[in-house]
Amino acid sequence: MSGVHATARIGARADGRGGTALPVLESDGPLALRRTRGTGEEARVLLVGAMSGPLGGDRFAVEAEVGNGARLHVGSAAATIALPGQTKDEAHYDVRLAVADGGELRWMPEQLISAKGSDLFVTTRADLGADARLVLREEQVLGRVGEEPGRLTSRLTVRVAGRVVLDQELACGPGAPGGWDGPAVLAGYRAVGQLVVVRPEFHRAPTAARSVGEYARVMPLAGPATLVSAVAPDALRLRRALDEALTHVDIR
Amino acid sequence: MTRAALLVLADGRFPAGGHAHSGGAEEAVKAGRITGVTGLEAFLRGRLHTAGVVTAALAAAAAAGADPAELDAAADARTPSPALRLTARKLGRQLMRAARATWPSAELDALAGEFPAGAHQPVVLGLTARAAGLGAADAAYCAVYESVSGPATAVVRLLGLDPFAATGVLARLAPELDRVVDRAVSCGTAAPTQGVDVLPAASAPLLEIGAEVHAGWPVRLFAS
Asked: Mind listing the domains of chain B with CATH numbers?
């Protein structure tokens, strides 16, 4: 067995005084968690990469669980860079999110950059109660500036009350199934992102499909959720597009 | 099973309405992403490994006896574009009408009753294959071939491409179609026992985004 295996855990609970407590905040190896200043009812956690990676052969996991009435915001201090390792093995990064009824999670990490020669499988799974709320951002950048990307396979599954409302996998880079860089999939764009917003209010009043700028589309899903899907030439323009789209769909 | 039934179902002239759809090719041509044979081949290859494998696995799973309502929900979750979900249900309804007239079956009747506005087309396709006495691999072949042949024909019309060149592209893709069918059948036949999460979820951001753009056009040659 090679590579680093690490699992970081966050547990958020309503503290009974209108705020959110973090009874679980477990860093592990390269995955360091820091509580930062929150806003009102919301607790904030920053994921700080204490080492580079994931490298080939590494297995990273982050688990966050938000209880009834708790509000948690998770960000990261810097972009995550998938790099080749000393072995040819693929790397895995698993994100497991659970939000109970009446809980809210804002999962807003920085970009994932797929560097040349890397091979990473990302699995993100969010399980939400019927009245849970979620904003989840996922951005992938194919290669550092001027660099060919590595191989990146990323699957995102969102369940609300046990029902799957979104299940999407994107595979790109050398070794991915053919056509990933062609006119049906990415067509030379080097940054691709998704923003998932889940709100119980969307049952009664779904968001309208619309375009936001040149790169992003708002798509109401079959369920109380909306997806913003965007492709852009670079990470900066992708972030601008997603930030603007969020102002249209993030009702409170 | 009868091999000829597969030809009847796979025939582009089977009256299921597919000819009116370009599978995203019309938007890709207008946006300048497909300008000739090379672009067509890259488009079809990308479509095959995303929408193609997903629809083929759904069809194989339906043919193998997985719960059609669960498959329909799995298709929804794999189709974020509301325009594409609507298209898939319209095509499902049209195929249902043709299928019930061609191969009457209690399973098709039940699905039509449960989804009056139409179930996702690959789910109907899989049950149609069952009604015709065909298997999961036959359903997957129909879905996979349809996922590339429709857009190829559309691009011939949209760009005035040489039809021989477009057919040549399909022939070159054939070994990849076989491999995609193998994967679709292995996932699809596992779905009745392991659940629909084993089905592939390969996505193509520009097909989804492009379908939304296309649905907003006032004038279109193709319905999708």
From this structure: 35-194+201-208 (1.10.4190.10)
